[in-house]
Amino acid sequence: MPRTWALLKDELFTVSGLRIWVGVAIVLFYVFVAVFAPVLSPFDPEELGVGPPLALPDSTYRFGTTYLGYDLYSRTIYGTRTALSIVAAASLMAVSVGVPLGLVSGYLGGRFDRAAVLVMDSVYSFPSLILAIVIAAVLGGGMFNAAVAVSVIYVPQYFRVTRNHTLSVREETFVEAARALGASRADIIRRYIFPNVSQSIPVILTLNSADAILTLAGLSFLGFGITPPKPFWGLDISEAWRYLTLTADYPQVWWWTAVPGLAIVILIIGFTLLGEGLNDVLNPQLREGQR
User: Fold this and answer.
1) pTM of structure
2) Hey, which residues does 71 pair with through a beta bridge?
3) For the segment 132-167, what is each residue's pLDDT rounded down to a tens digit?
4) Beta bridge partners of 65
5) Cα-flanking dihedrals φ and ψ of residue 42, to 5°?
């Protein structure tokens, strides 16, 4: 980890560092909105009829209202809290399963490694959204079930990267020395291998977070993720789409899809910039190839 922080310190004022700064700024802005949602939101996002149906954006309803009279501004703000909460929970679950399993599998090898690789490759081969839909359909709606559905599709990525690095690090001289001195397998993995493979985790975490936002929005749009009246961007876009199939008043409701859509796009850009910047800084091979 000290090496990781040293690399970050040296690269923060390069082009890669600029990506990190912009990505951090965007993500922190969303975190601020999520934390202070009760203060920033003028209405209850789950309350019907706080305004007239399909009101145009004005000083009272800043982003307008839906056809059921929900305040879109309030729902967009609280949707930030919903999105970040689920992505954080899904990432924590994926890391908690994928990283330890990759460490153990890569270090032990043998039948356990072959079995773990077979299972993870099988999961990884499924299209991520389809797999998330299947899991969400089995578990049902709700924030926790959505987090589980999203987390499962990212476990193989953490496993594969961690395992591949472990296979390389376990052959290093310092690991051989620790083994010769009688260190246990658990100590070797915890003290010598994990610190040397952990620098890839922040990169995967940020890039997967960007993809998780899109996956979660897709689940909710298709009716397998967040359930009404819980505020979330994908759900609001789905409701707007259903309304648009019944009416020709598209010019009057463009904001209903544009506002949550922009919220999704900007947050994805933030996580992507952060992840790409970290990848440029922490990946020695990539840095050397650019010189």
Assistant:
1) 0.87
2) 65
3) 999 998 988 888 999 999 999 999 999 999 999 998
4) 71
5) -80, -20
